Amino acid sequence: MTFPRKRLIAAAAFASTAVLLAGCTGGGEGPAPDPDEPVAITVGTLPAGDYAPLYIAQEEGFFEEEGLDVTIEIIAGGAVGVTQLVSGELDFSSATWANTLSAVSQGLEIQVVREGTDSSKEGINGMIAKEGSGIEGPEDFRGQTIAVNTLQSATELQIRDCLDSAGVGPDEYELVEVPFPEVGAAVSQGRIAAGFVPEPFITIGEAEGLVPVMYPSVCNEDQANSPLINWNTSRQFAEQNPEAVAAFVRAMDKATQLAIDDPQVVVDILPTFTTLTPELAGALVLPSFVEDGTPDLEGAELTMDLMVEWGLLDEPLDDLSQYAWQGE
Fold it and tell me: pTM (2 decimals)?
């Protein structure tokens, strides 16, 4: 993919301010790996808009500038990604605080290295249903089968909390797992009444006669103030490869800042790793990218409290700061 000259100029400007951007996260300082001897890393992610900065960093050469040779792998979800970090199949993975806290409660040693997106914008995710199906809002989920991509995850937490705030109890619907790319077909075929998806799957669904009937990201005050997507590594990898972690954070800082300052970069890159056409990419609601990527411990505590409330954690965890990467 070829970017216009103005985008190349913007990339150069971001490279010249790398130190400032690294300072935003509080953890990206330190020497980079040698670009002449790049460190090979594998990063797990999903084909959705929230993860665009990863692809931007790859396309714009930010990883290469930091001495990293990045391989991107598609994962089933954040819960799977964090287990692959511990097994060594991945070096970094996209996830959520719910994934991280669930993993560490089971003894897995995971750390969040950078926040990615938050839930402060309507339309970045939604529950989609067939137009004309009679499903028009959360109250219509009673007695229905609805889907999230993975159970025991941030998506389950968000849906259960949203429905509860709308007066729909957990015993009034059935929750099943359907991967994001398959939700549209499952709804269209009547296998589920509605399903949770992030963009770009809302926009893709609308082109196929599906409509959003609830926006979980802003369904109540807690959800609107919650962190959404973050980037994780294993504690072992962080301790053994602190320079590579710092380099990854710096590259993601630059890519995220570019995505914030020039949304067209996101629009242009989405068709390269999703099924979106350029026209659909231009129509979707872009994610709420987080400029200051410092791990959000306040948001993590909010997530933890909801997890305990909804049975995704047996009890609160002590000292959440130990699950946030502190830098070299």
Answer: 0.81
